[in-house]
Amino acid sequence: MEYASIIAHFDIKENITECRPYGAGHINSTFLLTADNGKKYILQAINTDVFRDPEGVMQNLSIVSAHIGGTETDERRYLRAIPTLDGGYLCRAEGKAWRVLNFIEDSVCLEAADSEADVYECGYGFGDFQRKLASLDASVLCETIPSFHDTPKRYADLLKAAEADVCGRLADVSAEMEFIKKREALICVLQNAYAEGKLPLRVTHNDTKINNILLDKGTRKALCVIDLDTVMPGFSVTDFGDGIRTCAATAAEDERDLSRVHFDIALYRAFARGFMDGCGDILTDTERALLAEGAMLMTLECGMRFLCDYLSGDTYFRTAYAEHNLVRCRTQLKMVAEMEESLAQMRAL
Ligand code: ADP
Ligand code: GN1
Ligand code: MG
Questions:
Q1: What is the pLDDT of residues 199-216, one digit of tens each?
Q2: Which atom of ligand 2 is nearest to the CA of 302?
Q3: Ligand 1 pocket test target in 41, 42, 68 with most atoms within 8 Å of CB
Q4: Are 207 and 177 contained in the same domain?
């Protein structure tokens, strides 16, 4: 990748002398730019197979960034796109859509949960993000990935991928398929509540995994929610649940040794308290009542998505080896099984 010719299109004052791959996201290609005076930026190639309308993604980012940034004095607290010299936000080069973002300095990005205190802060940060966006009219945002958290559709997609079995991998995953099929009733919980008028549509993040929030390196308080590409109308329960998926797990999403993967109720409690505190008083009684199911549902949904991608030949999530998506699927299903055991306690919390 010839970075100099790409960044020449952006309004960057400093002299960038280094560009290296950065982070562990599954979708975009991320690089850290460093200038000779130490100033840093994030350079990203948006994955246009996943985000078909990168201009729409950037428009959403500008709206959300202006909404949150409007009340912020600390520039480390919100993500911003650096404009191009022609006044846009994207540079098309090498067949990709590139953007530059402000680098959030002096922050920590966790790849797996470590302490209850950090997990509380992750919950707080995502809840606070939702509270700040409660005053934004959801209809101004475009849907960057249609039906993103439509779990019944995700289930139908999995069944189709199993039927097609293009890689001949179905025979290896019969236990996982059976596990998911047994939980069909759970799959429709949120869509049913919405259809009955019980669940409000809000502006939500939709990808609240642990490495999409940064903590302040010094204070370890929630600092900045990042990866705003999926911010669009959705359910608060989904953001809570997707956060629990990684924040209340005792091991990484791709841990091969399943004996190390557990759902940890103390981490659940810490995230839930943080999320509630961050949300303030915006959540309705129905939303609160659905949080525990939401955690189970989002973990199951992600397990289905990994399995669907495994069966389809690993075309969506970035993988490092042949069984990577299957390994990821198995950690998610193990978490679901343990959440089922703890459901009464989760609801009580
Ligand atoms: P993906 O969609 O591939 O997950 P992300 O936007 O989440 O891409 O970026 C991948 C990783 O890069 C993040 O998990 C984080 O570690 C790092 N990162 C992204 N944006 C920033 C930023 N503005 N400041 C600091 N780190 C960032
Ligand atoms: C992807 O982009 P990243 O790594 O933050 C995915 C999420 C999944 C997650 C699983 C746009 O998140 O939906 O939950 O992987 N993002 C997209 O780790 O599909
Ligand atoms: Mg990410």
A1: 999 999 999 999 999 999
A2: 14
A3: 42
A4: yes
